[in-house]
Amino acid sequence: MKTDPATLEIMRSYYNAIAAGMGHIIERTSFTTFVKESADFATALATPSGEFFVYPKTVGVTIFLGLSLQRAAEACEPLEPGDIIITNEPYSTDGLATHLPDVHVFKPIFVDGELISYAWAFVHCSDVGGLVPSSISPEATDIHQEGLRIPPVKLYKRGQANADVHMFLNANSRAPQLNLGDFNAMVAAVNTAEQRMHTLVNKFGVQAVKDSMQDLMDQGELRARKVIEQIPDGTYSFADYLDDDMVSDTPVRLAVSVVVKDGSITLDFSNCDPQVRTAFNLVTNGKKHSFLFQGLINYIISSDPFIPVNGGITRPISVVAPAGTLVNPVYPAAVGVRHTITMRLYNAVLGALAKAIPNEIPAAGAGQSAIVVMSTPDVLSGSRNMAVVQPMGGGGGGNSDMDGADGIDHASGFLRNTPIESLEQHIEVLVHRYELLENTAGAGLHRGGHAIRLDFEIREEGSIVTARGMERLRFHPWGLAGGQAGALGQVTLNPGRSNERKLPKISVLHPVPGDVVSIQSPGGGGWGSPFKRDPQDVLEEVRAGLLGVQQAENLYGVAVRVQDGVWVMDEALTGQYRDEKNWEVADLWDFGSAREAYEAIWTSEASDSLAQLLQQLPPTQRAIRKQLVHERAKQIYPQQKLSAACIEQLWQDLM
């Protein structure tokens, strides 16, 4: 290390202040609820090679750590002072841009003609064209249906706005004025970062700045390896599922084998399902990508709270991601709902680690962040108004030492809720309910987090509602170490009315004025035996209206009754109930009835075998063949446990 520890800590504080300051500029000057309320943006500083050497933990979302600007920067060479690059294109940036509404802006910072750093920001912008307002439709079948693709290009050249690029950006959006406001916020942020980096160079010298960047990266790597070294060496495999791919009822399986050895980790996705025909694909180009292992990153940061948060943390991690799989789709696969894959991979990677270190891993959280967006016509301009109604998370998973967080899953990247007052000011909508939902937390020694219910009324003709990323309506968030699975989510139109009806996952909804859309998110899984939970904590849940009397008795063995108008615990009856309960943990996981029924037929052996056979086909044919095998299996082997030999026979029958 070239920088002494005291000076390095000082430099780290300066860098964090610059990167966080960029975020505050975006937060305070942006135009849209996507950014200033939901906080769907991020900022960072990068080395000349494109690695993020500082990434603030307290501003914006926290899931882009470890990505690289290198490929995008190379596409715009030669770079000059005053240049600002813009892009949203996943395939040509190695997944820096993960879907088209995430627009990235970064500026090279020069000192005496030498490139010393980059200032980077992204925002989720309102609309880049495509099939639906806000651009994201889960049912898109290729990336060209998802909107304008912006390959890396100079938004500013030598400090001057590139008018041609601005013209194309404005012409390909339903809400160009909203986008422009957010783009300008990013430009202000990277320009300010450049000024502050120059101030830092003047204070410490250019060599000290360059050395400290690399030293922070090396320190992040060293401390990450020390955390990984505490995990027993071995290979740990796990799988989790998306409910479906929106075109069939066949589940989408994300399988991973985590190989731990000598302070390094390899994540092998060879048995992962093939890329799907809809928008649930994650572009990585087969390279290491933070969206593949966000759960592992969070584990490292949680284990060492003072670790420098930068790309060095990802250096001990490598991946195997075959082309044509969900985690390495082949162009032009649609990618708009890629964060759904990210959140399920969060569960899958941590599920694998739970086999090695169960006391350090939480149960599954809600596993969704359904960004509910509403669009209404602007009759004066002919464009459309848009706003995030809510980023609908759900309960977090319980831990070995605490309950799961209510209403937010740690896999969500710290998205914030939209205040109702702000929402109703921005768009014609009336919110009826926005509350935590009773009896949705997975029971446990430490329960899962409670789910959320959101009911909102449509007020204007021509309104459109989208809700990307809606999941866990079929497969429960799993409980761990004796904890029980969390509740499923659901969608209802006009609850409590004569025309009430249940809805599937929302892709594009065209409600009429007066309709009420009700969305219930999933609850988090519980951790540990519910019968070991402090009965007083159970009583407080009942008093808070979040746990029913019958549920307290059945799930926790706690008897409560009303005395003098308040809920009290019947200690004698509680003791009797708990004496009768089995306190032992029967299995490490509680997957819920739906997954248990599915895997009673589709065993890991069968699914792994099919995944390997599918890789013999061209990528665009794999999802269709997978569905055919599943349909054939229902005909030939109804309700039968499938083996690798069964899958081989089905495969031959369809050749």
UniProtKB/TrEMBL annotation:
Name under which the protein is recorded: Hydantoinase B/oxoprolinase domain-containing protein
Pfam families, sorted: Hydantoinase_B (PF02538)
Residue stretches making up the Hydantoinase B/oxoprolinase domain: 4-530
Any Gene Ontology CC annotation: cytosol
InterPro entries: Hydantoinase_B, Oxoprolinase-like
GO terms (BP aspect): glutathione metabolic process
The organism's place on the tree of life at top rank: Bacteria
Molecular function (Gene Ontology), one example: 5-oxoprolinase (ATP-hydrolyzing) activity
